[in-house]
From TrEMBL:
Natural source organism: Roseinatronobacter domitianus
Protein name: Tol-pal system-associated acyl-CoA thioesterase
Gene: ybgC
Domain of life from the UniProt record: Bacteria
A Pfam family recorded for this sequence: 4HBT_2
Key words of the record: Hydrolase
InterPro entries per record: 4-hydroxybenzoyl-CoA_TE (IPR050563), HotDog_dom_sf (IPR029069), Tol-Pal_acyl-CoA_thioesterase (IPR014166), YbgC/YbaW (IPR006684)
Family the entry assigns: Belongs to the 4-hydroxybenzoyl-CoA thioesterase family.
TM segment ranges: none
CDD domains: 4HBT (cd00586)
Amino acid sequence: MTHTLQIRVYYEDTDLAGIVYYANYLKFIERGRSEWVREMGVDQARLKATGGGVFAVRRVVADYRAPAVFDDLLDVQTRYLRHSGARLVLQQAVLRGDKLLFEAEVTLVCINHAGRPIPLPDSLTVHFGKNPPERS
């Protein structure tokens, strides 16, 4: 299951060299993850309010392949890889047309109000079908 979010590069996204500032790719993929969860019908505000937890980034392994520049139209792709207990692993990519600009493997954890891991919500994991969970 892959979700795609289209975004435009604005002047504020670029650095002195006129290319997208490296940290902004993390913002782009955050938006992609948020929309991926929303598309699955998970209301993150309601989840938090009912004690179902919030998602926190635990790990990001990123590779910058090529620069994006002002006014580029980019596709942010988010793809489910695996999950276990409180952990969810996603593959994310930023492309301009067919050209891969950035990719990352992102590990999220679901945590409660005290910052302790809790199981991923059923409202999310129901979408993962019969894929076997990751072993920790």
